[in-house]
Amino acid sequence: MSSVLHFPAATPQQSLDYLQAKLAYYTDAWDLAEDLARNLPGIQVIDARAPAAYRAGHISGAINFPHREINASSCEPLDRDRVYVTYCDGIGCNGSTKAALKLAELGFQVKELTGGLDFWKREGHPLTWGEAPGEWPVTAPDASCGC
């Protein structure tokens, strides 16, 4: 018996529903970089790592908001009309999930960055160092994700 077909494939409608829902929860580095390069409103990137890790290199424009510090009081300044994209080091880290969970519990719209900072760097997207969020470079690297 087929290992692939041991469990029947979903119907096209089931696949459509599942895949649309999946994309509601996640974004990837390429899509996020495109939106940041175009300076589109409504998105705020949150680096959920510790301040020392943030200072050592972060996504240009991201604010440092360690997941351990997220609570109702610390979120008061956040704009509820924005979508918050959380990230941490990469797939071996769940800081972005913890940050997204806490933000969602407080009523914010969230997405997680697939692959975190690791995938961001692999694709050659801009980084900023230090305590300031930094700004997106005027000219972003010319790269293609190939997908």
TrEMBL record:
Signal peptide: none annotated. Residues 39-129 form the Rhodanese domain. It comes from the Bacteria. This is Rhodanese.
